[in-house]
Write a sequence for this structure.
């Protein structure tokens, strides 16, 4: 199964996180942060589980449906941020109310890096353990690899699909919460900048290995962040980083196609 | 530019043409699909080509049509040798083929489908002229279909008629039909075949049809040629032959292979019971129609039948891979719901056909694939959830050694293994442990003799240990070797059932052909 709707879960996760923070103005920062994380994960999980449910019960292609759900998620996001959840003080750029400086995630001591990095690394390690070291992950891999084989050995394919989609959506939702709680302090259009789509690229380059995601994500994030520097120091347009990302992508795609097909690159028999 | 010079010896450009395929041979790897096969079809005759699955019928017609290049032999069209190296060349000689499955574009009208099939289309199509041409053509035809109707709105019989009209519109004079009636109702089949027979009688067309159904052979064909295991097995006038004669040609002389050692007699307890089971195919059409059967402990029930008569759906339903529409499957008298718990409780195992597609995850390792049945219990999972990779590898090494699976190692992806080795790996996984109920579907398809004997021995051993075995196979020799009882499935129903001692190949062959 290939689900590419992480952007939708991320956006709604960020929205849910800022919405829940609005309701608890006087709670302790840790409590607010936990509530934000939980709300974001629930929102993201429900959103992607929707694509999984459509797949399981209605036979809708999950890749397409999750992609289309992104547009609905963004529409819902805009509707709420410009209406019900709008901070009256945000004039030009409709936003939710600020979550308050005390509730922000802050930076890792001694660095400029916010704690979202730790969230990401922990999520990757947990995903790896879940997928490769638990029976549940084993069942997911079988059901994801071949539904017929999974049913033949009696695995509950529908439940596995829903839970897997839910977990994936929860991860994307958490990313949205981190984006709100560590960077913007509120949910607004700055959240919709395509991190979910970058996530597809990262997952693909990491060849779907959760541990490989850590270096690949840092690499791609670094390339993205270097755009401003390239502009200022070398006078290059900021699209340079897109070109670079595109080149990496093409190189990986080409090697995927040509893998094992070029006779002069074949491994010699020992 | 090369001037087109008409060959003075070429056959006349219209009317039925004769065809002979002489000494045809074709090898695929180690398999001799065709071995010195000769087929002679007279001009204006309706010729039937009979044979079991894998007898080489399709290979033969594909060689004639230029899809395959035969290793030996030659094709004569209208008494002239013709080197047919491509389908287009066959088309130019007036040879055409109608397939089992429709090749029309569903979203286009009949007229569009017919016109677009032509190879000489101009860049801009004058539809008015084309329509007039089609009307003129239809006026000469014994049957017609609505020209402006979309193909998707046509019934199956009309679609098949359109396929045939398309071939006639393209001025084919020799028509090959590959099981043309398998998608039609008997009434539709009779109509289409009757029309074609009338055209052959009128000398407009020669027809060669591949079929499994004796009824159609007797009703419509003039002559018949029978293939068996890639070899010519007989031919003659239909009027001179009986159904038994043809069944004998198809099945060969009644030589039964040496049975695998069979010990003990079937027990009394019914292990697998199926009650008026109905199952649909992928398109939602009924595939299994009200089947009931029982298999006892220590018994092998063989199910014979030409593929596509619902066997696949039946096996998938019992294996838990396909939802059942109604009816019940019970194991040891308890209703079976396809859950993992029930599979473990009743020790159900399956050997599906194409194991890589139906029973494995190609990207996962051999060790992981071998543990599909037991990955959530000790020693594979500590506490029922924490996987122990060492246990996977250890268990895999044992199965690999015992079942002689050739693999680079337990860590290799199972998709890299050859078909026979995947088959042996799945065999090891499914019947390496204790088995109470085993469902096998064409377990030896595509394997060499040694591997076949090996797998037969394993299935028989499982039976001897007391397993109830349901063996679905298209290979009658296999069924006769292994079964205690044999049944025939035709068109989704069990049409025959008897103890193997009473079974007769000829009778079974006739039931397989729905006779």
């Amino acid at each position: 199964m290939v689900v590419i709707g992480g952007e939708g879960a991320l956006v709604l996760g960020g929205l849910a996180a800022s919405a829940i923070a609005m309701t608890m103005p006087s709670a302790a920062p840790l409590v607010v942060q936990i509530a934000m994380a939980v709300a974001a994960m629930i929102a993201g999980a429900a959103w992607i589980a929707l694509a999984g449910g459509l797949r399981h019960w209605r036979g809708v292609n999950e890749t397409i449906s999750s992609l289309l759900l992104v547009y609905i998620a963004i529409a819902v996001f805009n509707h709420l941020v410009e209406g019900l959840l709008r901070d009256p003080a945000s004039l030009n750029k409709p936003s939710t109310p600020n979550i308050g400086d005390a509730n922000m995630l802050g930076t890792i001591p001694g660095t400029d890096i916010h704690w979202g990095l730790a969230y990401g690394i922990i999520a990757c390690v947990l995903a790896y353990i879940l997928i490769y070291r638990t029976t549940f992950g084993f069942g997911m891999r079988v059901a994801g690899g071949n539904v017929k084989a999974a049913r033949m050995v009696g695995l509950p394919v529908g439940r596995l699909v829903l839970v897997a989609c839910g977990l994936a959506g929860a991860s994307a939702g958490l990313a949205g919460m981190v984006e709100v709680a560590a960077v913007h302090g509120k949910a607004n259009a700055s959240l919709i900048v395509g991190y979910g789509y970058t996530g597809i690229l990262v997952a693909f380059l990491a060849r779907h290995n959760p541990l490989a995601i850590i270096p690949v994500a840092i690499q791609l994030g670094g390339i993205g962040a270097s755009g401003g520097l390239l502009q200022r120091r070398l006078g290059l347009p900021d699209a340079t980083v897109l070109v670079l990302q595109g080149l990496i992508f093409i190189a990986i795609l080409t090697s995927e196609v040509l893998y094992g097909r070029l006779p002069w690159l074949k491994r010699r028999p020992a | 530019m090369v001037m087109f010079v008409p060959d003075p010896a070429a056959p006349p450009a219209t009317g039925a043409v004769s065809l002979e395929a002489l000494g045809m041979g074709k090898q695929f790897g180690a398999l001799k699909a065709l071995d010195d096969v000769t087929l002679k079809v007279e001009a204006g005759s309706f010729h039937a080509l009979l044979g079991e699955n894998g007898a080489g019928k399709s290979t033969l017609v594909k060689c004639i049509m230029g899809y395959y290049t035969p290793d030996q032999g030659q094709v004569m069209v209208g008494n002239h040798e013709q080197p047919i190296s491509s389908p287009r060349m066959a088309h130019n000689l007036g040879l055409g083929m109608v397939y089992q499955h429709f090749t029309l574009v569903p979203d286009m009208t009949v007229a569009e489908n017919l016109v677009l099939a032509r190879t000489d289309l101009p860049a801009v199509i004058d539809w008015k002229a084309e329509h007039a041409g089609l009307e003129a053509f239809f006026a000469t035809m014994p049957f017609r279909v609505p020209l402006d109707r979309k193909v998707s709105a046509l019934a199956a019989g009309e679609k098949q008629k359109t396929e045939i009209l398309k071939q006639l519109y393209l001025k084919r004079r020799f028509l090959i039909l590959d099981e043309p009636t398998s998608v039609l109702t008997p009434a539709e089949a009779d109509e289409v075949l009757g029309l074609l027979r009338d055209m052959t009688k009128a000398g407009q067309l020669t027809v060669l049809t591949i079929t499994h159904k004796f009824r159609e052979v007797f009703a419509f064909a003039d002559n018949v040629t029978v293939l068996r295991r890639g070899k010519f097995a007989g031919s003659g006038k239909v009027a001179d032959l009986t159904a038994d004669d043809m069944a004998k040609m198809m099945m060969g002389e009644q030589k039964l292979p040496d049975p695998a050692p069979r010990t003990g007699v079937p027990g009394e307890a019914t292990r697998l019971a199926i009650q008026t089971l109905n199952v649909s195919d992928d398109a939602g059409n009924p595939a299994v129609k009200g089947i009931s059967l029982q298999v006892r402990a220590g018994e092998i029930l063989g199910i014979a039948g030409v593929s596509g008569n619902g066997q696949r759906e039946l096996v998938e339903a019992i294996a838990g891979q396909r939802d059942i529409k109604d009816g019940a499957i019970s194991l040891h008298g308890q209703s079976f719901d396809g859950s993992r718990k029930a599979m473990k409780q009743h020790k159900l195992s399956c050997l599906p056909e194409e194991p890589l597609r139906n029973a494995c995850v190609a990207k996962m390792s051999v060790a992981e694939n071998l543990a599909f049945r037991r990955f959530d219990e000790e020693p594979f999972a500590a506490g029922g959830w924490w996987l122990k990779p060492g246990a996977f590898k250890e268990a895999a090494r044992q199965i690999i050694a015992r079942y002689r699976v050739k693999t680079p190692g337990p860590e290799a992806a199972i998709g890299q293994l050859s078909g026979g080795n995947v088959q042996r790996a799945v065999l090891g996984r499914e019947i390496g442990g204790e088995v109470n109920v085993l469902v096998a579907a064409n377990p030896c398809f595509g394997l060499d003799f040694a591997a076949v004997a090996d797998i037969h021995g394993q299935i028989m051993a499982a039976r001897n240990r007391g397993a109830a075995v349901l063996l679905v196979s298209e290979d009658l020799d296999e069924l006769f070797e292994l079964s205690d009882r044999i049944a025939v499935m035709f068109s989704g129903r069990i049409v025959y059932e008897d103890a193997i001692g009473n079974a007769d190949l000829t009778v079974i062959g006739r039931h397989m052909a729905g006779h």
In short: The interface with chain B takes residues 132-139, 141-142, 145-146, 148-149, 151-156 of chain A (CB under 8 Å). The radius of gyration of chain A is 20 Å.
